[in-house]
Amino acid sequence: MNHLPDAAEVLVMGASGGIGLEFCRQLLAQPQVSRVWAGARRPDAEGLAALAEAHPDRLQTLAVDVTSEADIAAAAERIGAGTPRLHLVVNAFGLLHDEDRGIWPEKRLEDVRLESLEASFRVNAFAPILIARHLLPLLTHRERAVYASLSARVGSIGDNRLGGWYAYRAAKAAQNMFTRGLAVELGRRARQVICLALHPGTTDTPLSQPFQARVPEGKLFSTEYAVGCLLAVIDGAGREDSGRFFGWDGEEVPW
């Protein structure tokens, strides 16, 4: 990554998931990355724990439930005790379904439930903006910094032609508005911070697994491919791109 400074400090939230874990792997492969902070609800998850064991000096795990503001604040405090600045923050978590809690994408209006709406908004919309709120002191410095949240094309209001999936679509649309508002404010307060919403495409992870049968041939991406593309988008973004929504292919997605 050409635009990460030497001794860069980066944070991946949702680091135990398929995309988040791959972000950690690929960022650790960048020689200019000094340390990857990896936030996860279960930092002892098999993949993340193995990665931490392989990189004990460069990967620092954090126990974070992103639906808990207290957890987010504690993680920010711990990071701040270890470094005065962050150069990249990636929010790589999301909630589409949870069979244990009866959460599933709605096919019709009668399927909408308050519990599902609340759960989706807490993870997909509220968590990213609360993370930004608590990390702002670490992003406010003189070097280029990127604050990127994984969104989804189904959260685009202008691109919604199929309907359904009420909770997930609306929560991702709300996340996009938070990202845009954050970009506007930081354009006044911290102009070196670039705020991005990113669509990874349909990626082979547990989040998409129940819906992969309907994915056209060649459109189901590996985590390695999706993350590599997203890191290229992040690396190529300039100040003029702050507050914009990009797909893995670098094409802008309509709000």
Automatic annotation (TrEMBL):
One of its GO terms (cellular component) is cytoplasm. SUPFAM superfamilies: NAD(P)-binding Rossmann-fold domains. It comes from the Bacteria. Signal peptide: none annotated. GO terms for molecular function: oxidoreductase activity. InterPro entries: Fungal_SecMetab_SDRs (IPR051468), NAD(P)-bd_dom_sf (IPR036291), SDR_fam (IPR002347). Gene3D superfamilies: NAD(P)-binding Rossmann-like Domain. This is Cell-cell signaling protein. It comes from Sediminicurvatus halobius.
